[in-house]
Write a structure and sequence with these properties.
479 residues, alpha/beta, Thiol Ester Dehydrase, Chain A, Rossmann fold, eleven-stranded mixed β-sheet, six-stranded parallel β-sheet, 17 strands, elongated
Length: 479
């Protein structure tokens, strides 16, 4: 290992300022949680430049860079430990990996290859019109990207970028360094823009015919089958290609107006339902169905206040009753429920950490603990707090088909959900008339499952509605 580092949000902001890449996937926890990353991710180019800077400090006086390639295979979360690990070195090139050193130690997140040699002759310039960097990332369809081209000015002077990576600046040159930073601006803000993932980079160092501080680009192809965009770039002493992907946009669940015909008028009237995690996903669908059936609904959110307000507004616009409450399943339940007012007759528990994460080990105890914190301890704390208010509260615990199917890499999730099922059984034996209904659900369309290519999803509303009717039937008396 050459070096290790933890990238903080302060590091994110500094690189965003220097590069011009302010894509919310890197800076906004609420936005990032609805992407494949699940949480703010470190800029891929920031990782690349840091790793090269580490190599430059470790091997002072190495030959000039002739060619640079990088492939980013996984996200690196802010506050995660990253290490640079040499993989292969010889006189012609130096190849090393970025390795994520969290609970999945040894998991490769990027591969970088440096080829040494004399810079090439400058290619013919891509004659492009100037494109201004947008204040907000473009949200374009693939068809709009097909013929895009332009020239992006560097967001900062080469000297400003060099301040962050001084050793690399002396090796690669500050203008090439600035051009690489600008490639992050190109992908994250312009093309593809909002829903982009920086996939790979292959560039040659070259002489410069055009001394202006900018990066020319042209879209070579935009493939809808794989949501893949390939760009040619020239500028700042570099020429080559970038491949980027479009991640699936956040899933939009059906509106209350669209769901109202699925429920019988007033079938849930007289009940007060608390929906934990009701600001999006299955919790959002549950809240809308209950409200359209006449229930008084309170949804909770942990970080998505704006999304929760949107769900409340949607339900009220369709004639339902709904309020929102800040709630963190990882904290004591009772103080957070102090403003509820009437004791809920029903509660639906959709709190969930990020489910799908790559790992290198067969089993990761820290990952299991994270799931248990939410799916067992969090649910138990909520049940205790609600039972103190009303002894016959009816609870819903959403389990998963994964308990028996156990897809590869999901053993910790399956174990935690199985533990939650056992907890519910014990509650029903010991705490009656409180009752916890358990239902194993298949993959339903949410932000966490939308990126799974080729998956056909069952309608969330149609799958959930029979479950809601079962849960609602357990109440012994109306609130």
């Amino acid at each position: 290992m050459l070096a290790s580092r933890t990238f903080t949000m302060a590091d994110q902001i500094r690189f965003a300022t220097v590069s011009g890449d302010h894509n919310p996937m890197h800076l906004d926890a609420t936005f990032a949680r609805r992407t494949q990353a699940g949480e703010p991710a470190v800029h891929g180019i920031h990782l690349l430049l840091w790793a090269l800077d580490v190599l430059a400090r470790a091997d002072g006086g190495q030959p000039a860079i002739r060619r640079l390639t990088a492939r980013f295979s996984r996200f690196v979360a802010v506050d995660a430990m990253v290490a640079t690990v040499p993989a292969k070195r010889n006189q012609a090139n130096a190849r090393f990996d970025l390795v994520l050193d969290l609970v999945v130690a040894g998991l490769t997140v990027a591969q970088i290859t440096v080829d040494y040699g004399v810079p090439a002759r400058a290619p013919e310039a891509l004659f492009c019109n100037a494109v201004s960097a947008p204040a907000e990332p473009y949200n374009l369809a693939l068809e709009q990207m097909e013929r895009m081209s332009g020239r992006l000015a560097f967001a900062s002077t080469p000297e400003s970028v060099a301040t962050m990576f001084p050793a690399l600046s002396g090796w690669l040159g500050s203008r090439r360094l600035a051009a690489l930073a600008t490639s992050s601006l190109l992908v994250g803000m312009v093309c593809p823009g909002l829903h982009s993932i920086y996939g790979s980079l292959a560039v040659d160092a070259c002489d410069e015919k055009d001394p202006e501080d900018g990066l020319n680009f042209r879209v070579v192809s935009a493939d809808p089958r794989f949501r893949l965009v390939r760009l040619a770039i020239v500028g700042g002493g570099l020429s080559g290609t970038i491949e980027s992907l479009l991640h699936v946009p956040p899933v939009s669940q059906a509106s209350s107006h669209e769901l109202i015909d699925l429920v019988e008028p007033g079938e849930f009237a007289g009940s007060t339902a608390l929906v934990v995690g009701g600001s999006r996903g299955l919790g959002e669908v549950t809240a809308k169905l209950l409200a359209m059936g006449g229930a008084k609904v309170v949804i909770t959110y942990r970080v998505g206040r704006t999304e929760a307000d949107a769900v409340v507004g949607d339900i009220r616009a369709a004639g339902g009753i709904c309020n929102a409450l800040a709630y963190d399943a990882g904290k004591a339940a009772e103080p957070q429920l102090s403003t509820l007012g009437a004791a809920p007759t029903h509660a639906y528990y959709f709190a969930s950490p990020t489910i799908f994460r790559a790992k290198s080990a067969l089993f990761a105890r820290a990952r299991l603990d994270a799931f248990l914190d939410t799916y067992v301890d969090g649910f138990l704390g909520l049940a205790q707090a609600l039972r103190a208010r009303r002894s016959d509260v009816s609870l819903f615990y959403p389990s998963s088909d994964f308990v028996v199917e156990r897809p590869r890499g999901m053993i910790e999730y399956a174990m935690a959900k199985a533990a939650g099922e056992n907890l519910c059984s014990e509650m029903n034996l010991t705490w009656a008339p409180l009752h916890a209904t358990v239902e194993r659900l298949p993959r339903l369309l949410t932000d966490q499952t939308a990126s799974i290519i080729g998956t056909r999803f069952v309608s969330s509303a149609e799958r959930l509605l029979p479950v809601l009717r079962k849960v609602q039937s357990w109440t012994l008396q109306a609130a």
